[in-house]
Design goal:
single chain
């Protein structure tokens, strides 16, 4: 009896030790993944900006959260947070089709590839731009916010990149593992104010990083990158909310102008961008993540259509969907609603490529491939 008790005690001790080691490993990983806040010197520079107040960047409009409106259970925020740790009931039952991209020299005019969610490769004026690279999950711990589908390519398979363009530092837009894998493959990182601190902490050389504030731009050869406001927020923990900036981008080439919305609620800034840049040949606009519990953080489908009109785009590709369940949507709910609005309006040029499919202006339309997948 005594031996049995000792054996049980040993087994318990081993289990506790394994659990402790696992918790330490997860904690260490999360510590690295959360990155770093801007330095005191940087914060002092930001204080002269009209959109920096009380140590935080300020959205053009508030982004409130109403816990009682969050879909997914009567317990509101608690059930919603727990949802990210559990198997996903909103994931597709079938595999999402993809095309493995093949890269040569970057297009001298324009080409693009949607890699899933908000990740893009855009080729313009001979420059290859990688937008918001995320190849794994959208959380600092491995079992949370899991993907519906494997990535089109891995970070290691990515071609040489002239510019890595980051819209903001949320986990579904900025991935530690991707930056570590790409840091020597990318010539220049262009990020909103404050986000550079993460990259430096993760091993990117400071001289390779350009930070932009709203209404600032960077010219590289014939290409100009303009950063503009959106209604959103930054930060990788609750305590660091809005210590870093977020942005949309205008990519202005010699012959083609492209708009990258980043994450945003609907607001007057879309019409401002349309007037400022005189319209766009193509826009990549976020369509998923909307919820009545946070009505200004992302756009509802009707607002997506209005934003498309406001920026005066000739066509648009929906992004920020098809990979993660960030707002308790059935995985294709947003694209179905967008397609229905497109059909009802009749004057909207909607491009719906497969993940990894090459997008060429005037040639690529895309099919409604999601309709055949449950």
């Amino acid at each position: 009896m005594k031996k049995a008790a000792q054996k049980a005690l040993k087994i318990t001790a081993i289990i506790l030790l394994v659990v402790l080691i696992a918790l330490v490993a997860i904690g260490a990983k999360a510590y690295v993944e959360t990155g770093r806040s801007p330095s005191e010197e940087d914060v002092k520079r930001y204080e002269s900006l009209p959109y920096f107040k009380d140590g935080r960047f300020a959205s053009p409009e508030d982004t409130p959260v109403y816990h009682d409106r969050i879909r997914g259970g009567a317990s509101g925020w608690t059930s919603f947070a727990a949802r990210f740790m559990l198997p996903n009931p909103n994931a597709p039952k079938g595999e999402i089709p993809k095309i493995k991209p093949v890269f040569g020299e970057p297009s001298k005019t324009f080409a693009a590839y949607w890699l899933g969610h908000a990740s893009l490769i855009i080729e313009i004026d001979g420059k290859r731009i990688l937008v918001d690279p995320v190849f794994g999950n959208a959380a600092p711990i491995p079992f949370a916010v899991r993907r519906f589908t494997p990535p089109v390519l891995s970070a290691e398979e990515a071609p040489p990149i002239d510019i890595a363009l980051i819209t903001h530092d949320h986990y579904d837009h900025l991935e530690y593992a991707a930056i570590r894998a790409l840091k020597d493959k990318v010539d220049r990182f262009v990020v909103p104010l404050g986000v550079g601190a993460h990259l430096v902490f993760w091993g990117v050389k400071k001289e390779k990083i350009t930070e932009l504030g709203w209404d600032e731009n960077l010219s590289i050869g014939s290409l100009t990158i303009g950063a503009d406001k959106t209604i959103h927020y930054g930060g990788r923990t609750f305590g660091t909310r809005s210590q870093t900036l977020w942005a949309s981008y205008a990519l202005l080439g010699e012959k083609v102008k492209v708009f990258v919305s980043g994450d945003s609620g609907y607001g007057a800034h879309f019409a401002e961008a349309g007037r400022k840049y005189g319209g766009f040949d193509l826009a990549f606009i976020e369509i998923d993540g909307w919820n009545s519990g946070w009505p200004k953080t992302h756009m509802f489908p009707e607002e997506v259509v209005q934003a498309y009109r406001d920026i005066n785009a000739s066509a648009f590709v929906p992004v920020h969907w098809g990979v993660f369940d960030l707002a308790l949507h059935p995985w294709k709910e947003s694209i179905q609603m967008i397609a229905k609005l497109v059909d009802a309006n009749g004057d909207i040029a909607l491009l719906t490529p497969l993940m990894g499919e090459k997008i060429i202006l005037g040639e690529t339309n895309g099919s409604r491939w999601w309709e055949s997948i449950e």
